[in-house]
Write a structure and sequence with these properties.
The complex is a heterotrimer of chains A (about 250), B (about 400) and C (about 180).
Chain A: H1 2-16, H2 19-22, H3 44-56, H4 79-86, E1 90-93, E2 102-105, H5 119-125, H6 144-153, E3 169-170, E4 178-179, H7 200-215, H8 219-248
Antiparallel strand pairs in A: 1-2, 3-4
Chain B: H1 9-17, H2 20-27, E1 32-34, H3 43-62, H4 72-81, H5 86-113, H6 122-144, H7 149-160, H8 169-177, H9 184-215, E2 231-233, H10 234-259, H11 289-297, H12 301-313, H13 318-321, H14 333-353, H15 361-386, H16 396-404
Helix pairs in contact in B: 3-5, 3-9, 3-10, 4-5, 5-6, 5-10, 6-7, 6-9, 11-12, 11-14, 11-15, 14-15
Chain C: H1 13-43, H2 49-53, E1 57-60, E2 69-74, E3 77-83, H3 86-94, E4 115-119, E5 142-146, E6 151-154, E7 159-161, E8 173-177, E9 180-183
Antiparallel strand pairs in C: 1-9, 2-3, 3-4, 5-6, 6-7, 8-9
The chains are: A mainly alpha (about 250), B mainly alpha (about 400), C alpha+beta (about 180).
Chain lengths: ~250, ~400, ~180
């Protein structure tokens, strides 16, 4: 018994030290998210608000190329709204019967059309910096949504003596503390259709929630299936254990 | 063992032509198994269960995966988003790799503690090590397939290990890549081999079982079976015990799959591979970390590579390095402590492997590397000669009775 | 994961029956679990969400002259769009239903008589029938001829001769304008 305690403790230690958690960095402003925990789920209204922020602000520079326009219906946009969003940008298609490539407005089945044709075009338009695609942002950074929240809220004046590069901005959590993106979030940056007060904190939380949905659209299905699976397995394992006890009763 | 008599005519007809049922009967019902196996003996069957999960999920994932540098990353994300239950299958596969390794590591350390590698089970042990080596290769190539940043840079670093080989190193690396950097030809061959190797593992597992059924299961007391009073039938006793183990295993495994699916992963691997930018911290998957620490402990390129591969190869000689006549650590009062020290040493190596190679991490890693080899090459050979083992029980059933009392 | 009871050790009869009950319960729950676990594997091979989203195709008819046909792709399958001549329409309409293997009048297979829209897949074993190009063989009934096993389709795409059991399928389509249709 003692041995297994030692072993599991050692295992837990080793896992705790696993690289996924180890790489530190600046202190992140830990938030509580609606989807945290075993029973967590997305707040549809919040996702829709967050999408509004993404659409009006972020999407001018950042892509979301893994999300399809049809997916927007999952966060409460109507078919017509989603179609309208898709048609806002053009994408290359073809060749047509004359053998020419042509531009056409986006369709529901298209994935989100990026604001720039390619990375080079994005750099040229952004002072040499590349605005990353946001489809997986909350999964692709240590700290996930808390990191993105802290970064968006982390702009400040550079401390005395800090040498900022040309066109760079001071940020408390970005590695190296200077980031090419200018501060974007401010109170009342957008006006919410549902009347929620658009404070900077609210805006940031909403857009991060939207981005988390964009990165993990399966989260709700995953957690609900997980609960059912765990309950089922508990029953099955209990039955296995009872049967094992019964069968082994006569041994020894 | 004589052929069992089958009552069912169809079974009898088939069995006279191909002895499927005789083999099945020998390996389950009438396979005499020591009656004192503890729960550490569950991890062999659990590892097999994990292998089956990996192959099943892998086959359906391969149906939706595209092995091309320009499409691999997006094809994996398409699995996550658009393929029916794709996220489930992919998370099962991702976490399944870690859980397969957890089972195999417990299985290996169980073997180390109870002396399962000693005569007449040397080949059984070797086959196990071959399975382990094949698993490492398979897992490495599988990790490359999503073509994220860690995939790409992991592939670059690991293939570059071979450049340490004198004279022909660079030729080997170019050959491994099929080009002058890790690129599309590399991805394609890794996909091919990643699909092939699990079936090689499966064949090795089969041989491992043949060897097991020839040399018979070991047991916690380390003494051989002396008669029928020491054994019970594999079925139903160990089938139900193994199933109970599977239930507990699934509870933990599914907990990760559904509620912390990226726990064992690296955020960097959700960034598409970029051959122009190396992520600041490259770390291999956790199951390689001890060996990664050994690699970095030696301040010489070739030396590090030799030490790393040597750390595994030395295990092949274990049946002869351990000079003790007593198998089970239970009756070896001094060995016992060295075993736990060795286990702790491996954890230290794993911890160091996940840390950057700087500051105090370097001497700690070197000390732990030294101890790893010192334990296997010096402590074990000497211990068998110097240590005075406890008195062994007369038989397995005697040891069981003693335990109960 | 079910297992037999053959190797059961002896015990009291009461214990025995309780064990049997446990065994049955466990086997049943285990079997249900296995069946449920198989479903994600099976369902993953059904069309994915992005595949389902690509289920419509728009076709411009203005460039298809009378007597001509074009082939467009819809859901990965060829769709025949044929601008029928008056003779072809006439022969399709006048074919006696009693001669047909799958009796359907021509008027139920077209929305506008001059436009015949068909999934271009032989209902026998899935080959693509010939007859789209002027130089193609069109079979004994002037429609399409499947070279794989010799099925003849008429100018309404109905099976008339050969092994195919059914008429060529008419996909769901709508006229967006007089010269444009959306298939699917």
């Amino acid at each position: 018994m003692l041995r297994s305690v030692i072993t599991s403790a050692a295992l837990a230690l080793a896992l705790g030290a696993s690289p996924a958690l180890a790489s530190g960095g600046a202190h992140l402003d830990k938030q509580s998210w609606s989807w945290d925990g075993v029973f967590g789920s997305y707040d549809k209204a919040q996702l829709k608000r967050g999408y509004q922020v993404f659409h009006d602000v972020c999407s001018n520079c950042h892509g979301l190329k893994l999300v399809a326009y049809r997916n927007l219906k999952e966060i409460g946009l109507s078919e017509e709204e989603a179609k309208a969003v898709a048609a806002e940008r053009e994408t290359k298609d073809g060749p047509n019967d004359e053998g020419e490539m042509f531009n056409r407005p986006g369709k529901l089945s298209d994935r989100y059309i990026s604001p720039f044709a390619n990375d080079q075009a994005a750099r040229v338009a952004n002072n040499g910096a590349l605005p990353p695609d946001l489809s997986l942002m909350t999964k692709a950074r240590v700290g996930g949504p808390d990191y993105v929240y802290s970064l968006l809220m982390g702009f400040a004046d550079a401390p005395e003596g800090f040498k900022l590069g040309d066109g760079m901005n001071y940020n408390k959590v970005f590695p190296g503390n200077q980031i090419a993106m200018a501060p974007q979030i401010s109170d009342d940056l957008v006006t919410y259709a549902d009347g929620t007060k658009a404070s900077a904190d609210q805006l940031t939380k909403d857009v991060v929630s939207f981005l988390n949905w964009a990165a993990e659209p399966e989260l709700e299905a995953r957690k609900s299936m997980g609960l059912k699976t765990m309950i089922f397995l508990l029953v099955l394992t209990a039955l296995f254990y009872a049967l094992k006890r019964k069968i082994w009763k006569d041994v020894h | 063992m004589s052929a069992p008599a089958f009552n069912n005519k169809i079974i009898k007809w088939i069995d006279e032509r191909i002895p499927l049922f005789t083999v099945l009967d020998h390996s389950t019902s009438s396979y005499p198994t020591p009656k004192n196996l503890n729960y550490w003996w569950n991890f062999g069957s659990l590892a097999l269960f994990a292998l089956v999960i990996m192959i099943m999920t892998g086959i359906v994932l391969a149906m939706n995966y595209t092995g091309h540098t320009s499409m691999a990353f997006d094809s994996v994300e398409r699995i996550m988003r658009d393929v029916n239950y794709g996220w489930l299958l992919r998370y099962l596969h991702m976490n399944g790799a870690s859980f397969f390794f957890i089972c195999v590591y417990v299985h290996i350390f169980r073997g180390l503690y109870y002396g399962s590698y000693k005569a007449p089970r040397e080949i059984l042990w070797w086959l196990g090590l071959l399975i382990y080596l094949a698993m490492m290769a398979t897992a490495f190539m599988g990790y490359v397939l999503p073509w994220g940043q860690m995939s790409f840079w992991g592939a670059t670093v690991i293939t570059n290990l071979f450049s340490a080989v004198p004279v022909v190193g660079n030729f080997i690396v170019t050959w491994l890549w099929g080009g002058f950097a890790v690129d599309n030809p590399t991805l394609n061959r890794f996909f091919s081999l990643h699909y092939l190797l699990p079936f090689v593992i499966f064949a090795l597992v089969f041989l491992h079982l043949v060897a097991l059924h020839t040399s018979k299961s070991g047991n916690p007391s380390g003494i051989e079976i002396k008669g029928p009073q020491d054994t019970i039938m594999f079925h139903p006793y160990y089938t139900i015990k193994d199933l109970y183990g599977v239930g507990v295993f699934l509870l933990v495994f599914m907990g990760f799959v559904f509620f912390a699916p990226n726990f064992f992963g690296e955020p960097d691997n959700y960034i598409p591979a970029n051959p122009m930018v190396t992520p600041p911290h490259i770390v291999p998957e956790w199951y390689y970390l001890p060996f990664y620490a050994i690699l970095r402990a030696i301040p010489d390129k070739l030396g590090g590579v030799i030490a790393m591969f040597g750390a595994i190869l030395v295990l092949f000689a274990l049946p002869w390095l351990d000079s003790s006549k007593v198998r089970s650590g239970r009756f070896r009062p001094v060995f016992k402590w060295f075993f736990w020290l060795f286990l702790a040493d491996c954890f230290v190596l794993g911890w160091i492997g996940g840390k950057p190679a700087e500051g105090n991490y370097i001497p700690i890693g070197q000390a732990a590397t030294f101890w790893y080899f010192f334990h296997l090459l010096v402590v074990l050979p000497l211990l068998g000669r110097l240590e005075k083992p406890l008195a062994l029980p007369a038989s397995i059933s005697a040891s069981v009775l003693k335990e109960k009392a | 994961m079910a297992h037999s009871t053959t190797a059961a050790p002896s015990g009291s009869s009461q214990g025995e029956s309780r064990r049997d009950f446990l065994l049955i319960a466990t086997s049943a729950v285990g079997a249900v679990g296995t069946a449920l676990a198989v479903w994600p594997f099976v369902h993953s091979m059904n069309p994915a969400a992005d595949t389902l989203a690509l289920s419509t195709t728009e076709v411009d008819l203005s460039k298809v002259a009378e007597g001509m046909a074009i082939t467009v792709t819809w859901q990965g399958k060829p769709v025949f769009v044929r601008h029928r001549t008056a003779d072809e329409i006439k022969s399709a309409e006048e074919a006696p239903l009693s001669d047909l293997r799958e009796p359907t009048p021509d008027k139920d297979r077209v929305q506008k008589p001059e436009w015949l829209i068909l999934v271009g897949i032989c209902t026998h074993l899935g080959c693509i029938p010939m007859g789209q190009k002027a130089s193609d063989p069109r079979g004994d009934f002037g429609g399409w001829f499947c070279p794989c096993h010799g099925s003849h389709y008429d100018t309404s795409g109905r099976i008339r001769k050969g092994p195919a059991p059914l008429n060529l399928v008419v996909p769901k389509y709508t006229f967006l304008t007089d010269s444009q249709i959306r298939i699917g």
